[in-house]
Specification:
Blueprint: E1 2-11, E2 14-24, E3 29-33, H1 40-47, E4 55-60, E5 63-64, H2 70-76, E6 78-81, H3 93-97, H4 118-132, H5 148-160, E7 166-170, H6 178-193, E8 197-201, H7 205-211, E9 214-219, E10 222-228, H8 234-242, E11 259-268, E12 275-280, E13 284-289, H9 295-303, E14 308-315, E15 318-320, H10 325-330, E16 333-336, H11 340-344, H12 351-356, H13 372-385, H14 402-414, E17 420-424, H15 432-447, E18 451-455, H16 459-465, E19 468-473, E20 476-482, H17 488-495, E21 503-504, E22 512-513
Parallel strand pairs: 3-8, 3-9, 6-7, 7-8, 13-18, 13-19, 16-17, 17-18
Antiparallel strand pairs: 1-2, 1-4, 4-5, 9-10, 11-12, 11-14, 14-15, 19-20, 21-22
Length: about 525
Amino acid sequence: LLKIEHLSKDFPGVKAIDDVSFEIRVGEVIGLVGENGAGKSTLIKIISGVIKQDDGIIYYKGRDIRPNSPRDSQDLGISTIHQELSLIPNLNVSQNLYLGREPIIESNLPLLNKIVDKKKLKKDSEEIIRDLGIGIIDLNKKAKELSIASQQMVEISRSISRNSSLILMDEPTSSLASEEVANLFRIITTLKNRGVSILFVSHRLEEILTICDRIVVMRDGCRVGMLNREEAKIEKLVSLMVGRVFDLFPKENVDKGNVVLEVEKLSGKGIVRDVSFKICQGEIVGLAGLIGAGRSELAQMIFGSEPIIAGEIFMNKKNIKIKAPNDAVCQGIAYIPEDRKTQGLFLNMNVNDNTTLTILNKLCNRIGLINQKKQINLTKDYINRLSIMTSSPFVGINTLSGGNQQKVVISRWLSLKPKVLIMDEPTRGIDVKAKSEVHSLISHLAKEGMAILMISSELPEILGMSDRILVFSQGYITGEFNRKNATEEAIMRCATQLTNQNKFKEDSPFMYEK
């Protein structure tokens, strides 16, 4: 279906794509892996018409193509799901699904020929959602009101609705939990059986080995390997991607200290109900569960960004009241949110400003002016400690890779020297080398005595880095495992467990009552 021959692309000072060749057959799923900066997204942008190659040929259905725009690519039958979500926030699901190709009322009157047929729009949207079996999504909801996972499924639905022969998927699972990923894989299998081909990019190597027929490995803009699924192993893929072997989960064994954080019968306005647990010094507690189970809501309640309507929080056995994030910060609690770009970074600022925002008051002199020398030295210290790849503290944060951006977010909160660090999806959307570095940092912080609550939708990460694992389902903790007895199967059983204790009562102060 698609054949790429000797493709190259240069940017100022960078060889983004260097003499890359491979092909995709009809009804085949090809995996594309590599570190950030390996050239994966550039390759997808060339095929999808966003940018043009400098050298090389792309054959599609036997003929040389050079799409000048994404629309050209779509007209040829090539759809793209980009890494960054591109839904229009103020349009509803149906409008986003058919944006730019809305059904028009058929009429002899010229004015009516420009009016959107809303009934057909809704009907066609319902058929797509039902055909893909992606669950219940309110078609009238605006995109900005949907969860990140639901937005991702709408993006996928929109791409599939174009009846394309080739779909380019750039990190389609970055916002999905295991159940949503399984649903996506079911959809991909259905499409494959219909003869649709897919180029699948993911940093989650377990997914690549599960769904792909063959795997293209890239490093520094070059194709360094092409493996069949049967011969591909995670260790081999990692070795090809980075040029060496390393430990993806460098977890050190640490003796637990005293209890730092204790939560008792915590309930919120949303789904979280009657949650109790403890975290000790030097302990990494993993929080597993499906998207929507209440994990992030719990983290935000502890940090003060979501209201608590029942229950208590203790720090070092002392009962504390947290009504706002500043209360949590004053108690030694830090929170790294799941979406670094919208919740964790100021994209119009540089590395220096993003690193020191939480402690500007400590960097000021007597008359309230920031001691810039002290500020820059602190930033440089964290750049060195966390191996942040940047040429200068004054480089714009939006120019850094996802892994380096995440390290900046982490360094900002570490500068407060917290006692408890809550990390929501700490390695989402970053490559395997950056993941290993973040995991190494987490392990090091625990060794220094920090208590860490880590939320992750990746079960290998939960199993590889946690001392103890709490499993969430429907706002309740439905299972607890230690490092030795935890398995993916056992965690998923608890994560999909119906609590049978959630009984709706209209006269209850909570949505559900245990």
